[in-house]
Design a protein that fits this description.
mainly alpha, hpI Integrase, Chain A, disordered N terminus, 3 strands, DNA polymerase, domain 1
Length: about 300
């Protein structure tokens, strides 16, 4: 029976990966969520195995309360509930359960937050410093400038930038093909300064490939100094170091450049639907958070400048 339970989860994860083409990151996260859910149920129900059809609304509520006691954020709890709901839909389609108990409980209400971002002056300062640093000709300096420019001009997620291949970049047309969440592809414009930075990087990349020889990755666009596809950790380290130079105490991550991109577009009057398409958001509600950011900025200007604010 234990084996059968484990097989159901493994089969579901394979279904996500092979048939629904869900990203490896999401498959891994769902796997962790379901493992935690299964571990809770065995303890809560006092059994060594879990009969999925026996799980009811009360058990679901107890699990969510357990997540809250562990200090899990509402966002992480909502994702875990989404994983369980998807798993039960899979079981229902396979006629292994009659109902989906996860539908009987509401998802935790997520906190509204304003994403961290740079203002226009800070962004200009950061990019100007990166351009000056790149004049050294060092591979990492030239590469990091290109990364910053591409982040800001295209509003990419970290995984999207790391996943770009050389064939995805069209500098003549000023476009880049991006693979977003759920492997969905979109085409994003690349601005003039970013195009210049990327051309300089391509020359530096060719020189590096000549040095590393056959051991280099000839597919990936952004490489480490050893010629391999740049890792998430290396990207984080490089970008955060530049962000700290212009906003040391803010604790911004590389994702702040995506927020900066969206905020600046909306501040300049860009259409919300167009920004949604550029960001690759499936829902307009995900994009609307940036309208709050713009409103907060206007309120700050009003308070600072108006005589009777």
């Amino acid at each position: 029976m234990v084996r059968a339970v484990e097989d159901h989860v493994a089969e579901f994860l394979r279904h996500l990966e092979k048939e629904r083409d869900v990203s490896p990151h999401t498959v891994s996260a769902y796997g962790r969520d379901l493992a935690g859910f299964q571990a809770f149920l065995t303890q809560h129900l006092g059994t060594e195995t879990v009969a999925w059809e026996k799980v009811d609304r009360l058990a679901m509520r107890a699990w969510l309360a357990h997540l809250a006691r562990r200090g899990l954020s509402k966002r992480s709890s909502a994702r875990a509930l989404s994983a369980v709901r998807s798993f039960y839909r899979f079981l229902h389609r396979a006629d292994l359960v009659e109902t989906n108990p996860a539908r009987a409980v509401g998802a935790p209400k997520l906190e509204k937050y304003l994403p961290g971002h740079l203002d226009v002056k800070q962004t200009h300062t950061m990019l100007q410093a990166a351009e000056t640093r790149a004049q050294s000709g060092r591979f990492t300096d030239v590469r990091d400038r290109a990364i910053l420019e591409l982040f800001y001009t295209a509003g990419l997620r970290r995984a999207e930038l790391l996943g770009i291949n050389r064939s995805d970049l069209d500098l003549l047309g000023g476009l880049v093909k991006v693979r977003g969440k759920g492997r969905k592809e979109r085409i994003v414009p690349v601005g003039g300064p970013a195009q210049r930075a990327l051309r300089e990087y391509e020359r530096a990349r060719e020189s590096l490939m000549a040095q590393v020889g056959l051991g280099g990755d000839r597919t990936a666009l952004f490489l480490s100094s050893r010629g391999k596809r740049l890792s998430p950790k290396a990207l984080h380290t490089a970008v955060v170091a530049r962000l700290r130079e212009v906003d040391e105490g803010a604790g911004l991550s590389a994702h702040a450049l995506r927020h900066t991109f969206a905020t600046h577009l909306l501040d300049q009057g860009a259409d919300l639907r167009a920004v949604q398409e550029l960001l690759g958001h499936a829902s307009i509600s995900s994009t609307q958070i940036y309208t709050h950011t713009s409103v907060e900025r206007l309120k700050h200007v009003h308070r600072a400048s108006h005589p009777r604010a």
